[in-house]
Automatic annotation (TrEMBL):
GO molecular function annotation: ATP binding
Residue ranges constituting the ABC transporter domain according to the UniProt record: 4-236
Taxonomic placement: Bacteria, Pseudomonadati, Pseudomonadota, Alphaproteobacteria, Hyphomicrobiales
Pfam families per the UniProt record, alphabetical: ABC_tran, OB_MalK
Family that this chain belongs to: Belongs to the ABC transporter superfamily.
UniProt cross-references to InterPro entries, sorted A to Z: AAA+_ATPase (IPR003593), ABC_transporter-like_ATP-bd (IPR003439), ABC_transporter-like_CS (IPR017871), ABC_transpr_MalK-like (IPR015855), ABC_transpr_MalK/UgpC-like (IPR047641), Mo/tungstate-bd_C_term_dom (IPR008995), NA-bd_OB-fold (IPR012340), OB_MalK-like (IPR040582)
Record keyword ATP-binding present: yes
Name of the featured protein: ABC transporter ATP-binding protein
SUPFAM superfamilies, sorted: MOP-like, P-loop containing nucleoside triphosphate hydrolases
Keyword field: ATP-binding, Cell membrane, Membrane, Nucleotide-binding, Translocase, Transport
């Protein structure tokens, strides 16, 4: 398989900068997800690894070799796209055989048969082998597209939103299958998506791309719990992290514009022993500085006697849990609570949060104080 490195990559189209100084290091056998909104530069990055696009600046390395002069075929990568590129009049078997039959490197018939059979078994499409591809469902077609990549045994799989055209249920099923497949093949995957749930559930590592720049790279756990800036904090997580403006004053967090105070140390008795705030990273140096406080909805909880009073503005039922919108003055804040929580709209409630989980961001730069060092 392969180790992929992108070093100081920039790409401009005319006077539009699609990628700026991008660095990525994808380990051999890693499932790496590039996550970003539309237009962030995901497809451009993928096409550069595939050899379909040349960087304006910087280099792409595969297994330590600069592949600038290698064409797409020499790079030995397989691309799976959102739109399945199958031959509609051909059967599934013929579609799977097709990539193995170019004149220059035609494989022996027995080898072709074996690879097709294995791919079909892995993707559970054996029963479809003799069916024409225009008679398949979307999920089946996408399996065949992935099969066309697998049979080639490429060094790297490049996947450009391969699940986004499928309905929610199928997407979920194929997410698991793709992850299993990657582990089974031990292959290096670069998977591109705008869907943070896909990224968090499949990636060994996730790179968050914003306007052509990598904002943060890390495990899903790191990205979720320790977002580098307010962009990552609000992009990853559903509902997103609550971001509330405020300042630290005498070791208390004063949140504007409602002026409610968050104690930095919350009494051990009432609030479960949590005594520090923001991972213990409070110091005199931050006093008075404008900050943004990030609190995940699941770290907010209702409790009588808790420090802040709010009104319930909205209640969404999500089966096992409810997502509440709480109103404090003009500020809205989301809280994920158990479905058994009995609340009504406009009801007054009191809430607290897990102080260990609060992330403080510099208001000016948006960067987390933990990352700013
Ligand atoms: N061939 C091109 N010519 C001009 N601009 C381009 C070209 N290819 C991409 N761009 C621009 O570069 C930026 C990045 O595009 P890219 O397709 O990589 O984004 P993306 O993150 O994959 O978006 P999406 O999720 O919508 O596919 C966009 O602003 C796009 O319009």
């Amino acid at each position: 398989m392969a180790h992929i490195q992108l070093k100081n990559i920039s790409k401009t189209f005319g006077n539009h900068t699609a990628l700026s100084n991008l660095n990525l290091d994808i380990a051999d056998g890693e499932f790496f997800v590039l996550l970003g909104e539309t237009g962030a530069g995901k497809t451009t990055t993928l096409r550069m690894v595939a050899g379909l696009e040349k960087p304006t600046e910087g280099q792409v390395f595969i297994d330590g070799v600069d592949v600038a002069d290698w064409g797409a075929a020499e790079r030995d990568v397989a691309l799976v796209l959102q739109q399945y590129s199958l031959y509609p009049r051909y059967t599934v078997r013929q579609n799977l055989e097709f990539p193995l039959k170019p004149k220059i490197r035609r494989l022996p018939d027995a080898e072709i048969k074996d690879r097709v059979a294995r791919a079909a078994r892995t993707l559970r499409i054996e029963h479809l082998l003799d069916r024409k591809t225009d008679r398949l469902s979307g999920g089946e077609m996408q399996r065949v597209s992935i099969g066309r990549a697998i049979v080639r045994k490429p060094r790297v799989f490049l996947m450009d939103e391969p699940l986004s055209a499928l309905d929610a249920k199928l997407r979920e099923a194929l997410r698991t299958e793709l992850k299993n497949l990657q582990m089974q093949l031990g292959a290096t995957f670069l998977f591109v998506t705008h869907d943070q749930i896909e990224a968090m559930s499949m990636g060994d590592k996730v790179g968050v791309l914003n306007h052509g720049r990598i904002v943060q790279t890390g495990t899903p756990h790191e990205i979720y719990n320790n977002p580098r800036d307010t962009y990552v904090a609000s992009f990853v997580g559903s509902p997103p992290m609550n971001l509330i403006d405020g300042r630290l004053v005498n070791d208390r967090a004063v949140m504007a514009p409602v002026n409610f105070e968050l104690p930095l140390t919350i009494g051990a008795k009432t609030f479960g022993g949590a005594k520090t705030f923001g991972g213990g990273r409070t110091s005199g140096a931050t006093d008075g500085r404008p900050l943004v406080f990030g609190i995940r909805p699941e770290d907010v909880y209702l409790e009588s006697g808790a420090p802040v009073e709010a009104r319930v503005h909205d209640v969404e039922n999500h089966g096992v849990e409810k997502i509440l919108t709480l109103r404090v003055g003009d500020t809205m804040l989301r809280a994920t609570v158990p479905a058994t929580t009995d609340v009504a709209i406009e009801q007054p409630v009191r809430f607290a949060w897990n102080p260990d989980k609060v992330v403080m961001f510099d208001k000016g730069s948006g960067v987390s104080l933990r990352h700013a060092g």
